[in-house]
Amino acid sequence: MVSAADRAKNPTRTSVWLERGKPAGRARRSDQSAPSLDRDRIIAESVRLLDAEGPAKFSMRRLAGELGVTAMSLYWYVDTKDDLLELALDSVFGELRVPDVEGAGADADWRDQLRELAVSYRSVMVRHPWVSPLVGRYLNIGPNSMEFANAAQKILSRSGLPAHGVTGGLSAVFQFVYGFGTIEGHFVARCAEAGVTQDEYFAQAMGALRERPGFHEAMDLAEELMEARGGDTVEEMRERDFVFALEILIAGIEAKRGR
Amino acid sequence: MVSAADRAKNPTRTSVWLERGKPAGRARRSDQSAPSLDRDRIIAESVRLLDAEGPAKFSMRRLAGELGVTAMSLYWYVDTKDDLLELALDSVFGELRVPDVEGAGADADWRDQLRELAVSYRSVMVRHPWVSPLVGRYLNIGPNSMEFANAAQKILSRSGLPAHGVTGGLSAVFQFVYGFGTIEGHFVARCAEAGVTQDEYFAQAMGALRERPGFHEAMDLAEELMEARGGDTVEEMRERDFVFALEILIAGIEAKRGR
DNA sequence: ACCTGAACACCGTTCAAGT
DNA sequence: ACCTGAACACCGTTCAAGT
Questions:
Q1: Is A177 in CB contact (< 8 Å) with chain B?
Q2: For residues A47 and A128, is the Cβ–Cβ distance under 8 A?
Q3: How many CB atoms lie within 10 A of CB B192?
Q4: Nearest by CB to A172, which of B141, B178, B248?
Q5: Is B36 buried (19+), middle (13-18) or exposed (0-12) by CB count in 10 A?
Q6: Which of A27, A87, A180, B123 could form a cystine bridge with B175, CB 3.0-4.6 A?
Q7: Where is the HTH tetR-type domain positioned along the sequence (chains A, B) (predicted)?
Q8: pLDDT, tens digit, 9 for 90 and up, residues B32-55
Q9: Residue B85 sits at the chain A interface (C-beta within 8 Å)
Q10: In angstroms, rounded to a whole number, what is the distance separating the alpha carbons of residues A220 and B103?
Q11: Residue A253 Cβ < 7 Å to strand C
């Protein structure tokens, strides 16, 4: 933990994870009277609030209220709201089911492991729609993010892609999943806020669009394509798109093997 | 344009573009004295400010100040800040160079057109890093967004993908570009804010990471992969990743033709 | 070591009032 | 038709002070 004065000496610090000093908060006193707060409690409650009410309503004052404390108490444990968000971000990355890529897992089919990691990443983004803007905002170098990135690198390294293409392959797959999960997560959150099902929301938006003058032609093609894809619910349609897109990516990687 | 009272009658409105009444602002009076403001000026200045100072510093009060007017004047032209952002979003989508997919363009190679559209989308995201969170937030049904989506659909429809796979293919390509452009745009913006070049920022972050205990192994693989990819500057490295990733996607689509 | 109260410089938006 | 001033209910953060 770093005081405001220390921070002034390190003005280019770009991440909580690059703090000097104790990484997990200020030194705990050995004294018997336990403090009412700690970083982990603050982070856990932040995640809960962000999930429940969305990032727009998340404030230091609101969070403090939920913890039965004044807003200023929080500043004993984190330097800024930004740092807190970065901590919350890495904390939900802990939910990722990262396949075993070391011992026995190093012999598994890279395609299966890639699918597993992609599916898991997607579901984190959907469960926590506030995560995706933060992934863009921070460096993503917390321990859980790093474990994820490391596993992804190992999996793609075994795909047969030429060495010069592995980072590009990583981009292709995980930026896709990021984009997909972002849009999906926001859609789910919007429906929940509006108090309608995804199918209701979708039907309403499509209806409104069809009435727009000059958009008939565009909608015709869109509907034709949606028809061909099939799927009875919005969730099923999205699922088909995700699966097919992932298969395109895997097929593309296979096509680029050794070139 | 819709008054607060009208809006109350349409509580499920989910986009400025689904407003009832005049789509381009309130009716202009025929009177000779021109008003000092109009929607287009407000939108243009919003884009300028968002580019220059980022979304965190963008406020109705700040914007009004820049336009030489009080904050409340703006509410004559837009219902909420949210609506204004949605308008600004579609406005920068107007910068997209959408290939001709209708007449002669319908015979062009779909790969070339897909690359052109992807490159253009990426560069919009990088020039305007505030765009990417908004793409997640809104429905993206403004006229420029729709033209983009329509062109993308037409291009993918000619790729040889089976009809049921076209929407998945669209996801794969454009969610990838979205994710890539998001991360890239934020990185560029962060460097500008910190007043360092991308290469300096990158070197600093890598250096800090290498010093972290227990991250040696992960960094070794990452550096090996970056070595193999090559590229002397951060921009060049990113360029290689983007190009290769896009070729993976195209190869994947080709592999899925007719299946 | 840990927490608080008051204060500063901000927000988006409403509403009644001006011209 | 278009714009303003005052007001409401908020923000993140600092700082001096309490225990």
A1: yes
A2: yes
A3: 14
A4: B248
A5: exposed
A6: A180
A7: 36-96
A8: 567 889 999 999 999 999 999 999
A9: no
A10: 18
A11: no
Alpha-carbon distance A245 to A250, whole Å?
A: 9
A79, A61 Cβ separation under 8 angstroms: no
DSSP letter at B211 equals: H
Cβ-based neighbour number of residue B39 at 10 Å? 17
Q: Residue A149 in contact with residue B223, Cβ under 8 Å?
A: no
Q: Residues A186, A130: contact at Cβ < 8 Å?
A: no
User: How close are the terminal C-alpha atoms of chain B, in Å?
Assistant: 48
What value does the mean pLDDT of chain A take? 90
Which residue of A125, A132, A154, A167 to mutate against B (max B Cβ within 10 Å)? A167
**Smallest Cα–C1' distance to nucleotide C1: which residue has it?**
A29
Distances (CA, A) of B248 to A120, A127, A257, B161: 22, 29, 10, 15
**Quick one: which of B192, B52, B187 has its CA closest to B132?**
B187
Count of CB atoms situated within 10 Å of the CB of A225 = 20
Tokens 């070391």, located at residue:
A102
CA of A196: which chain B residue's CA is closest?
B12
Report the pLDDT value the prediction gives residue B25, as an integer from 0 to 100: 46
Residue A2 has pLDDT above 60, yes or no: no
Residues of B in contact with A165 (CB under 8 A): 229, 244, 248
Kindly state the percentage of chain A with pLDDT values over 90: 76
Q: Is A24 on the interface with B (CB under 8 A)?
A: no
pTM above 0.85, yes or no: yes
Map chain A to HEC letters. Answer: CCCHHHHHHCCCCCCHHHCCCCCCCCCCCCCCCCCCCCHHHHHHHHHHHHHHHCHHHCCHHHHHHHCCCCHHHHCCCCCCHHHHHHHHHHHHHCCCCCCCCCCHHHHCCHHHHHHHHHHHHHHHHHHCCCHHHHHHHCCCCCHHHHHHHHHHHHHHHCCCCCHHHHHHHHHHHHHHHHHHHHHHHHHHHHHHHHCCCHHHHHHHHHHHHHHCCCCHHHHHHHHHHHHHHCCCCHHHHHHHHHHHHHHHHHHHHHHCCCC
Which parts of chain B sit beneath pLDDT 70?
Answer: 1-12, 21-33
